[in-house]
Specification:
Rossmann fold, 14 helices, N-(1-d-carboxylethyl)-l-norvaline Dehydrogenase, domain 2, 2 domains, alpha/beta, 5-stranded parallel sheet
Length: 296
């Protein structure tokens, strides 16, 4: 295929190179010249001209919007544009509406530069499902796990939710490690110990399938009263050692509110339903569908 690719930074240059290695004709463009692309173009418009599918891998919404202004008169009618950037759902929706003759899909990726180079990337796609299916072989040249999430914007929402989870966990882990080390545990020993625990042995999101997604909290695998006791002891230790726990105190507040609901003997994950109440949404999944997802 003739493929336009704009944005050859830490991620984009590897994804474009993998498309090229797969035998596609890549019309490449970036603000800075990148070696290894014989079909280099002088502008984004030239990269888009005559292409069957067009990719952007850019820093954010402003840059993607600017590229849209540059290419909308050059990209052929009927072409598909996959935006691999981490974008704004509002901008993604607007571009989808404005590009009447082009199939615009949001397709943010996860895996970092190493994943981009090796082809070990998740690609979360929102937009027209038939277009996703048509270009699935091309997407598989970029990442080993392309996944259709839903209508336009769904891929972007999934990416933002994923990254929020990543950085929230990062903040929590910074707290636990400073607490453990300041309380006298050698860092490597602490790392090894935490990896051996139940949370350390299981993929983070897989644990959601045990209680939260099916909405089952009885009988308890680990009672709320015990979780509340453990986190209370950890917060007391932090206060004694002079370690601030912003995230830890929020966790204790959630468990305390759940205790006040009279849920002491229910599974500790029942505290997660408090956030569902606040947001006015249920995240429950039918058991059969959940089993199928875990098999995938």
């Amino acid at each position: 295929m003739k493929i336009g690719f704009v944005g050859l930074g830490a991620m984009g240059r590897h994804m474009a190179a993998n498309l090229q290695r797969a035998g596609h004709e890549v019309q490449a463009y970036d603000l800075r010249r990148v070696e290894g692309f014989p079909n280099w173009k002088a502008s984004a418009a030239e990269a888009a001209r005559g292409c069957e599918v067009f990719f952007t891998s850019l820093p954010g919404p402003q840059e993607v919007s600017e590229v849209k202004r540059q290419i909308e008169s050059a990209i052929p009618p009927g072409a598909a544009w996959f935006d691999l950037s981490t974008n704004s759902p509002d901008v993604v929706g607007r571009l989808h509406r404005e590009l009447n003759n082009v199939h615009f899909l949001d397709a943010p990726v996860s895996g970092g530069p190493r994943g981009a180079e090796s082809g070990k990337l998740a690609i979360w796609v929102g937009g027209e499902q038939p277009v996703f299916q048509k270009f699935l072989p091309v997407l598989k040249c970029i990442g080993d796990q392309p996944y259709y999430v839903g209508p336009i914007g769904a891929g972007t929402v999934a990416k933002l939710a994923h990254n929020l989870a990543s950085f929230a966990v990062q903040a929590a882990l910074a707290e636990v490690f400073t607490l453990g080390v300041k309380a006298g545990v050698e860092p490597l020993a602490l790392f090894r110990a935490l990896r051996q625990g139940a949370t350390g042995r299981k993929r983070t999101f897989d644990r959601l399938a045990e209680n939260f997604l099916p909405g089952t909290y009885d009988p308890a695998a680990f009672a709320l009263r015990l979780a509340h006791k453990d986190v209370s002891l950890a917060v007391e230790l932090a206060e004694r050692e002079g370690v601030p726990l912003k995230i830890g105190k929020i966790a204790l507040e959630e468990l305390t509110e759940a205790m006040n609901r009279g849920w002491a003997e229910r599974d500790c994950r029942v505290a997660m339903t408090l956030q569902e109440e606040r947001a006015g949404v249920s995240a429950c999944v039918a058991p059969d569908a959940l089993r199928d997802a875990l098999r995938d």
